[in-house]
Protein: Monooxygenase
Organism: Pseudomonas rhizophila
Amino acid sequence: MRSYQVLIIGSGFGGQCAAINLLKEGITDFLLLERRNFFGGTWCQNTYPGAAVDVPSPLYSLSFAAYDWSRMFAGQEELHRYTRHVIERFALQDKVQLSANVQRVAWDDIARHWIVDTASLETFHAQFLINATGPLSQPVIPDFEGRDRFQGKTFHTNDWDHTYDYRHKRVAIVGSGASAAQVIPAIAPEVAHLHVFQRTPHWVLPRRDRTFNRLERWLLSLAPMRTLLRWSIYWQFETRVIAFKYSRPAVRMVQRQALNMLERQVPDPVLRRRLTPDYLIGCKRVILSSTLYPALCRANVSVHGQEHGIAALDETGIITRDGQHIPLDLIIWSTGFDATDGVISYPVTGRNGTRLHDVWAQYPRAYLGTSLPDFPNLFIVTGPNTGIGHTSALFIIESQMNYILDCIRTLNRQNLRSIEVQPAAEQRYTEMIHREMQRTVWKSGGCHSWYQSKSGHVVAMFPGFSFTYHYLTRRLRLADHILS
């Protein structure tokens, strides 16, 4: 049994940001627990062809860890290098335990600390627990009839098998969201035939990517220029909330731009109809790609809509709903993650035996998306309603750290052991979130997306400007909490 003041579960950007902020606070008694055998999170795990960020790189980076980006939208390899840069710059490799898959956590009411059990039968104790596993870490694969019968190769985009050569093979990709939109253009020219199975089409806008030239990279090495570019991108992206929440005419104007792009790039009217969504833009995640539509128009690519979707699998391929049998060598599952109801994958037991599973039975909820009544000293990075559909998730993560560090700092300063949010404060916050959500395109845009829980509540997104969330988290509100 090993004891720490703080345990951080997960080593992606959320875990790294938490660790660095602890170091800045002078707290060194902490450990990151990483279930995989490598340190780094999303951009070390997701290595599928075409993987890249959909937020401009100068904004998709930690404010205190600048980087010499080569292009506007960094690819996975450069994002991996940036991750390593952050880890090495702050010597975080000395603060992590790999292959530490957390099985359960429980609050000890008497000792007033968290007990963390791992699959390797090792147990840890900690006064504070920061869950930074992220909402996009639990892959989902639909349980199609006969899925286990297929004798070809299968894998999820989250776990791409680079030992398998897909070139000149008959390939199906199931799903048409953000990951699929990156994989399809990357592999379509190399496969014999690519079958794309989409449940619903997505809205697509151009991806205005470009390589920075030598002069631009030199200019961006200067802190004032880098800061100017970062904030100009931030405020440009922040205006998107006006369309997502406050102005349906603005939504329809952006939607018209997407339709114009669809009409320009997809000349076949039948395929164009199949790729035209029937909901407002923004209701589902908007895809940024200038290469997806041309790839879908290739002669060796077939797009199967919902009416021609998957009925079952057999030993050699997919059987569609209209009775067609499609022989395949490879099936790629690009079917997303359990980002709402399964945001924390392991059992969590709080004060007086309160189970998080029961508290979240209707839908996940948390004060500032971060803390919960009856779960002292527990903080959830990128928890319920902290997702952001228009800007960098790292801005939200850094905002959360203001609140989390203020909680820890306050207890340390007052020589107290625990802090938890008042039930009434969490209730008020949650009611405000879902009241504001009614006005957003995510709630009333006419679609069902992964932003929603099984209950229909939108639990992935924050219903407003990111600077509003930053304001809410800027400091601890003592009146909303119980300290002891």
